[in-house]
Write a structure and sequence with these properties.
heterodimer; A: alpha+beta; 2 domains; nine-stranded antiparallel beta sheet; 9 strands; globular; B: Rna Polymerase Sigma Factor, Chain: A; Arc Repressor Mutant, subunit A; 8 helices
Chain lengths: ~270, ~160
Amino acid sequence: MSKITDAFDEVRLTPESRERILRRLNRRPAEARRRSRLIPALTAAAVIIVLLPAIFALFIGGHKAGSADMSAPQDTQDGVYGAGKADQTESVDGGPEAAEEDVGVPPYVLAPNPNPQDSSGVESADAPDYSGEPTGMGGAVNTDISRDGFRKLAQLGANAYVFAEVESVEYGSDGRQTVEFSLLHIIYPERTWVSESFTLDVSVAVRSFAPNAVFMLPLKVTRDSVELVGAEFVAFEIADDDTVYTAEDSELFGGWYGKSGVELEDAVLEFTEG
Amino acid sequence: MNTPDAYQTDSTGEIYRRRADMVYRVCYSYLRSPYDAEDAAADTFVNLMRYRPQFQSEEHEKAWLIRAAINISKNMLKRSSRRDLPLGEFETLASPPEPSNEVLGAVLALPEKYRIVIYLHYYEGYKTAEIAKLLRCPDSTVRNRLSDARQILKLKLGDGFDE
């Protein structure tokens, strides 16, 4: 074997990487099925959205020569990430202004929040007993996001990753820890770093955490939902120490810090304009 | 090796177990980042699931995966160059680790067109004509790239790096 062969022999997927890819491949068939159903439906909706106002305008134009409101199709584009189809339909009946007034639709709630008064939802011992079992890395339950935040995040693509730093830790009387994260970065699927002008506050109760740690929070983003699908330890820094420790260094600390694959107990995502 | 008629295409899971590291190495040769290479490797196997190609032989399977991994890695490089945005202070934490192996570091420091040729020739054992088919370029181009890459590596690592 040449030295080059030896060198490349060291390049291999770590067991964690293999697992991550396998998880993604296992999710893939379900995603593909959903997409195959979604695409025809979206296409049909898009055709209706585009054609109906035009037909309506032509119809009106036929009766009122020169008074057709040709701006309707452009105006309805505002609702593409939010109000969506409902807005578009209403714009036909009530005109663009009416559609604009209706944008205050409820937040995009992925699962019913059993305690809607408590937006944090995770800090107290009587935190909501969410429905649905968290399975492994998944299990985001209460995910409320504002309309603007959703719209911006939806533009990022089908999947985004949020790098977030542990901001504070609280201990509930039930022994669970609630970790407040602050946003560091959101990245595109291609791992391009972005510095967006909005912030994301994530509260996640986890079974284990690392002080000053940075977690990667994968978000599954679709046109009408955002789901926090995991929390994965990335690295942490020790105060007065320039060294950045990654998950690979976890053995130095008895494995405790490098607890990757933190299980989500509950999560609330809130977006605020920065 | 199986004959074309007898070759039964395995499930994605079996192919993944068999070829994951190879696909990862191809992606890593292009992207030089373990994180990006992992993404690209995953995309390669997602494509395998999506297109479900019927392989005629193990070699065919291997070549298909290499080609797919190259395409995905190149696309990823193109996209990242188009979407370069300001990096924040967190950049250093996100930087891919430098390879600890001197030879690997020297290979990865080569221009992109040389890296993949070196990998395919030395690690995968492909002949230049086979590499030319995989990369869809003339045989002479592959030979030239291989020769140039060897010269650069020789300067950096001294004689005997390919022994």
